[in-house]
What does this fold into?
Amino acid sequence: MIFIEHMMDSTIPTLDDLELHGKRVFLRADMNVPLDENGRIIDATKIKEAVITIKELLERDARLVVGTHQGKPGSRDFVPTDFHAKLLSEELGIRVKKIDGIACRCAREAISRVKPGELVLLENLRFHAEENLELPPKKAIETSLVKRLAPLFDVYVNDAFHASHRSQPSLVGFPYLMLSAAGRIMERMLLETEGLENSDGRKIYVLGGGKIADKFKVMIHALATNRAREVLVGGLVGVLMCMAAGYSVGKSRKVFKDLALILPVASESIRRFSGRIFYPVDFVVLRGDKVEIVPVYSVPNDAKIVDIGPGTVELFRERMKEADLVIANGPMGIFENPRFRKGTLDFVRAAIEVSKELVLCGGHLSAAARMLGPLPEGKRIFTAGGALMFKIAGLPMPAIDVLREGRI
It folds into this structure.
């Protein structure tokens, strides 16, 4: 088995290193869950996982304030944290009060009133403009978000492994200002991903979904360092690579911003890693309200790509047979719409059937796997997507680094 347990980096403090009774604790969780086109939760696993650390902090009489993000500005899932509070209340069996603010006066006053063993939830942290900035820790400390909130707390706990590849104020600003530690989910993920990083054998990465910049960082670094022997691409990443290979993608071309910048990078990647990047050979497209399956070389100009086709699933199946470990992140199509889930579900089914060892990571693939039923031995789900891919590809993890370097 590839998934072996290692000792966690002892320089990263955990909850075992902290006295929490009566302490004012800011818990940075990650309860950013996937939503469908109607705003309904597709998979609430991250919220349920967050309860593990929350329960322990409450049992240890912490005065607890929880912050999370949901979506990002401009995205369909960029919504308030009301439903997070509702689900937390159901999971914990207590009323979780949600504060309609983050660092404003009313929020700070509500934070100051929290008693030992009580919990409040802040508004979506990304509603605060500074939280959407990627900043080095010294700059993050100087933001109004950190300056206003830090004096209200004694302890900072980061349980947001899923966002640990980011360098946003709530993730990197607090550990230098107060006692800090990894929460239980962070601790568990650091242990389990170490097993993935140190595994031997032929690895294949499968990258789907959007977040083009992140996926390209992972793909290029993993191939250049031979952490991945091959990369299979679907979703928007696959569409972009098909464009780079010279194919027309119809109306889907309009989806991409800064195409003049990213298309040359994609083209250079195909040239540099010739024979190691595999992109779709067919697509499901939408023309008006009609759904068709077309080969990659004949996508109609008036069609929008919504999923991968069966030929691509078979191509990916054959490549995955050659791997000792397959690590996949991101859907193959517009998974939020049930009409366009088949490609993702068929890909996950094929990966389960043919791979020796399999990791499905991120909210969409986790949801897809659960739709197909229990996983057999050697196949695993992680709700963390981008962060897990960054870590196993050997890319920087700022929020983990600051826990190692901060105060304890």
